[in-house]
Amino acid sequence: MALLTKFDPWSSKFCTCPPKLTFNPYTGCDHKCLYCYASSYIPRFFNCRPKKDLISKLRREALRLKGELISISNSSDPYPNVEAEIGLTRQCLLILSRSRCKIQIITKSTLVVRDSDLLKHAQSMVAMTVTTSDDNLSKVLEPGAPPSSERLKAIAKLIDEGIPVSVRVDPIIPYLNEDQQQLIKELASIGVRHITGSTYKVRPDSWQRISLAMPKLAERLRPLYFRMGEKVGKCRYLPMGLRLKLMEDLAALAKMHGLKFAVCREGFTHINNAVCDGSWLIGAGIA
Ligand code: SF4
Q: pTM for the full model?
C-alpha cells in the first residue's frame, strides 16, 4: 500500500482543502486530546507507535514527487512525545526536504521547532493547533500536548526563523472556548497571518471522554448536539445557526487583527478569505 496518499477526509462534502498528499509517520498519538476524532477509527489510538518500514517506503515514493503539497499529518500528530527520542518525523523531513514537494506540518507540539533547520530551507509552513490561551484549560483538553503558552512561544520562534505559521483554532466548543479575543490578539502580535476555525464534531468516543472529564459541560452540550444538531457523515454537528455564529465571530476577530481566515469542514465558504488550510503561506514569505 502506498504511504503517500491523496488527502480525502472521508470524502467530506465540507472539505475545501486544495489537492494534496498526506501521510502519518506514526499510528496513533499520545497527546490524548479529549475531542480527538481519529481515535474513533484507529484501534488503540493513544498507544502511539511508529509506522512500519516508513523510511524505506518514503525514500522510494519521494523519488516520484513532482512538487506536490504534502500534509504531515492528518490522522495523528507528527510530533507525539515519543518523537523526541526516536526522531522518525525528522528523518522523513530530511528525505522530503531533498525532494520536490511542499511541506505542511500540522501539529500541536513545540518539538517542531527542533526541525526548523530543515523546514526553513524547504518550501514549508506549519499549522499549529491552539484551542485556548488558558494553559489550565489546554491541559484538560489536550493532556499530552504542551500547554498553549509553550505553543505560542514555539510559533514565535518558527516565524523568527522565517517559517510561516497558521493557527488552527479547532475545535471551538460552546460554553468552553468560544471567546477567543485574547488568543487571536496574541497570535496577531507574534506574526501569525492565517487562522483556520472549526467547531467540535461529536463522535461517540470523544463524547465519552468529554462527558467524563467535564460532566457539567456535557449536560449543557447534549441538547445542542443530540436534539437540535444534525448528523453529517459519522459525526454530530452543532445546529447550523450556532456553528455559523461561532465561525463568524472568529472570522470577525481575525479580520480585526488583519489576519486571513477560513473554516474547516463547516460548509460556510462565503466566510473564507484565503485557502482554508493556510497552505497559501508557503512561498508567501513573512510579512
Ligand atoms: S494531537 Fe491530534 S491526533 Fe493527537 S490526540 Fe490530539 S487531536 Fe488526536
A: 0.95
